[in-house]
Inverse folding.
């Protein structure tokens, strides 16, 4: 299990979704849509941030202040909303308004609802990353499995469905909750599967292949869109996967933690 799998599974757990819904007033179906796109987006931005020494040290310092091992739902229930907004501001930087706007477009939420949702999960997101980083720093093997952390942050014993949820499911689960794509002709997510095919029929077998294919087909590469933000031009599929699943992020942060 990688970081993306861990965070998505605990954020999409019923009790976590309900906590976000209660905290923000967003219905649970839209909370799920937001989580499915926001979590990999935030991982990508944090990975970008740790590409500089100052950014890596800053994020590691934030992780040292967010070490709760309570369940994600409990952390969301008691979230310091001001702290959550500060975290999102630090992660997204100057791109915050753009990312919030893109998430609003793709999910059908208002920008203030997206902002509230991101703020509600931000401290718990850092707690999960903090635990994953500590686990990696204390792990002597090259293959890191974060499955042992799932029960802690999920707040209950993970089910078999939880254990098998992975990267390839993200796009399928997101599209399964969409309206037919012809109602959103400008959506790059809709264009993945053709202009007239309902999203419910989409059966993607590989999220990254779908995203890379869609990115390559864009006639205007500079056009601002959510998937364009997730994918960096010129990267190989393996580089994109390492960025989205959190491998690069964990490697940098755990190395810094070992040297503390």
């Amino acid at each position: 299990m990688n970081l993306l799998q861990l965070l998505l599974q605990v954020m999409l757990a019923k009790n976590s979704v309900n906590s976000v819904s209660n905290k923000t007033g967003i219905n649970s179906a839209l909370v799920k849509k937001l989580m499915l796109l926001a979590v990999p987006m935030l991982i990508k931005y944090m990975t970008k941030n740790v590409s500089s020494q100052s950014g890596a040290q800053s994020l590691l310092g934030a992780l040292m202040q967010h070490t709760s091992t309570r369940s994600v739902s409990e952390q969301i229930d008691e979230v310091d909303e001001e702290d959550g907004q500060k975290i999102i501001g630090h992660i997204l930087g100057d791109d915050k308004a753009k990312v919030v706007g893109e998430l609003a477009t793709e999910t059908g939420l208002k920008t203030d609802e997206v902002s509230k949702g991101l703020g509600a999960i931000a401290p718990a997101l850092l707690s999960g990353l903090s635990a994953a980083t500590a686990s990696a720093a204390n792990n002597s093997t090259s293959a890191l499995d974060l499955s042992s952390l799932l029960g802690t942050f999920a707040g209950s014993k993970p089910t078999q469905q939880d254990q098998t949820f992975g990267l390839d499911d993200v796009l399928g689960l997101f599209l399964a909750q969409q309206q037919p794509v012809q109602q959103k002709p400008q959506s790059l997510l809709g264009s993945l599967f053709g202009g007239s095919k309902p999203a419910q029929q989409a059966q993607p077998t590989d999220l990254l292949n779908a995203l890379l294919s869609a990115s390559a087909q864009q006639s205007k590469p500079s056009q601002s869109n959510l998937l364009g933000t997730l994918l960096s031009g010129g990267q190989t599929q393996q580089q994109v996967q390492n960025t989205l699943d959190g491998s690069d992020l964990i490697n940098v942060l755990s190395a810094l933690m070992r040297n503390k």
